[in-house]
Amino acid sequence: MITLIFKAVEKCNSNCIYCGVIKKRQDVIMQFDLLQNILIKINDFLINNHSEEITFTWHGGEVCLLGSEYFQKAIELLDCMYSNKSLPKLV
Ligand code: SF4
Question: For the whole model, what pTM was predicted?
Answer without folding.
Answer: 0.70
